[in-house]
UniProtKB/TrEMBL annotation:
This is AraC family transcriptional regulator. It comes from Frateuria flava. The lineage of its organism: Bacteria, Pseudomonadati, Pseudomonadota, Gammaproteobacteria, Lysobacterales. Residues 165-265 form the HTH araC/xylS-type domain. Pfam families: HTH_18 (PF12833). InterPro entries: AraC_XylS_family_regulators, Homeodomain-like_sf, HTH_AraC. Residues 263-284 are annotated as: Disordered.
């Protein structure tokens, strides 16, 4: 089971949140925890479904001046936004737009950077997801609960790819081995394309460059590794970053906080244990 985390007292004073659990599966992930705080403006290459437990959180596009209070919201990929968990338990489900579910979500909600969600069926699924976390359910149970949220909103399975099979081959390679060296030329050879053709097709199919996608995959992998024990330096190296500073910069840009702000519960001082973690380091 993934470790539960809490924000350190210093991080809590800065208003940043720790993450309870982060679980990955192909093309998606779920981040969930308690006592979520506010993070810096950021953007990331995934559709973000934000689900509060019982009390509203605040969210807005990076260019918006006014906050929106809601129990649920969805943010489109690569769109700047700001999130404030208001100290509440929050779950975030990230769906890559290259999946069938991601394409369906883009078609349904892509006309706005941030859309508020009001759906009784979704509320029931969100409550079930939070219940799995609160009862320390298995990783498989938490992933299944998150997938049901995605499938409800997208009306399509959460896993299959929706891109050109040559690009799908490269995406699978990156997701399976995010920390392994993979240059653009090597990726192009894997797709049986010239580097220039691969570069163009990758952007056309995913909306971002190959290098940007590689960084996105590596950040998620590094966070998951870092939360499973060991140092952030080791996590950065295992994920293919030059060093922990590179990981920290990338994580701040994509998730609005540094990975070192995530502290395992067992390492937290006693006064922090009463309110376990600030759940959503990433995004909002």
């Amino acid at each position: 089971m993934s470790p539960t985390l809490v924000a350190s007292p210093a991080d809590a004073r800065r208003g940043a949140g720790g993450v309870g659990r982060v679980l990955l599966w192909k093309g998606a992930s779920v981040w969930v925890g308690r006592d979520t705080g506010q993070v810096q403006p950021h953007s990331h290459h995934a559709i973000q479904i934000t689900l509060a437990a019982t009390q509203p959180i605040r969210i807005r596009g990076a260019s918006e001046g006014a906050w929106h209070e809601t129990l649920a919201a969805i943010v489109m990929p690569d769109r700047g936004h700001v999130f404030d968990g208001c100290g509440q338990p929050v779950a975030m489900v990230f769906v890559e737009p290259e999946t069938l579910a991601g394409r369906a979500l883009l078609a349904r909600y892509g006309n706005r950077d941030v859309s508020l969600l009001a759906d009784e069926g979704l509320a029931t699924l969100a409550a079930a997801l939070h219940a799995v976390f609160e009862t320390r359910g298995t990783d498989q149970a938490l992933i299944a609960a998150a997938q049901r949220v995605v499938e409800h909103l997208a009306a399509t399975p959460a896993g299959p790819q929706a891109v050109d099979r040559r690009i799908a081959t490269v995406l699978e390679r990156v997701r399976d081995q995010p920390g392994a060296e993979l240059t653009l030329a090597q990726a192009a050879a894997l797709a049986h394309l010239s580097p220039s053709r691969f570069r163009h097709l990758f952007v056309a199919q995913t909306g971002i460059s190959f290098r940007a996608y590689l960084l996105w995959a590596r950040v998620g992998f590094a966070v998951a590794r870092g939360l499973s024990g060991g140092s952030w330096t080791d996590a950065a190296q295992q994920a293919g970053f030059a060093d922990s500073a590179h990981l920290s910069r990338t994580c701040r840009r994509m998730f609005g906080l540094a990975p070192t702000m995530l502290v395992p519960e067992d390492a937290a001082p006693p006064q922090g244990r009463g309110r376990t973690s600030a759940a959503a380091a990433n995004p909002a």
